[in-house]
Amino acid sequence: MESPFKVDILKGKVALLTGGGSGIGFEISTQFGNHGASVAIMGRRKNVVDRAISVLQSLGIPAVGFEGDVRKREDAKRVVKETVKHFGKLDILVNAAAGNFLVSAEDLSSNGFKTVIDIDAVGTFTMCHEALEYLKKGGPGRSSSTGGFILNISATLHYTASWYQIHVSAAKAAVDALTRNLALEWGTDYDIRVNGIAPGPIEDTAGMSKLAPHAREKIFF
Ligand code: HXC
Fold it and tell me: Which atom of ligand 1 is closest in space to residue 202's alpha carbon?
């Protein structure tokens, strides 16, 4: 599909994407790069990150990958710092890392619930927190009047209720709350735009193959 955006709309911008090596995160990485951005990817699986970086570089996109887990504050801190060290600044943070599996509420352990909350919600907060000093107006490499941008990837399954997704629904509801509250506080104080998007099911993503392996034949959610 042809892009509706100017091809150089992100020229000079530096973006860091958690979960940027696969699924929605990788597509956003690619599109950002195709529109002029330099791209840093953070992910837990080195082989996935490495593969994604090779593809981006083969497209001529300046790209660097970092192994890291958003659940670990030290990883978040390191990756944000290394991104700035590599590209000189940070303009855009995309929180796309997410955990998911299908399980009934009855069979889900407290730790299973906590694991997804830790990845999606706490991980998003931690990354935003570590990126704040670089994204705020007047931060390294920015003007005194213009802040950066945060994009949180949410979902729609918590708007009502979804089978076997109580942990993910709670986590994405928290992500939406983070988006609104950070937009209020950091938009006002630091000129950082904080937005969320809530994609529906997307073909050929880990989420889809896990949640609805026969989606082509069925209507779901
Ligand atoms: C029940 C499970 C489980 C399962 C893990 N747990 N998998 N419980 N059913 N299938 C429980 C474990 O028993 C354990 O609790 C706890 O969760 C932690 O499990 P670990 O395997 O130790 O955790 P970890 O290795 O850190 O892996 C976490 C993970 C993650 C959440 C399982 O690896 C993962 O989901 N990766 C897939 C990422 C993914 O699919 N991303 C796409 C997201 S799509 P106990 O009590 O036993 O210790 C998305 C979009 C949604 O978000 C909307 C779509 C329309």
Answer: 55
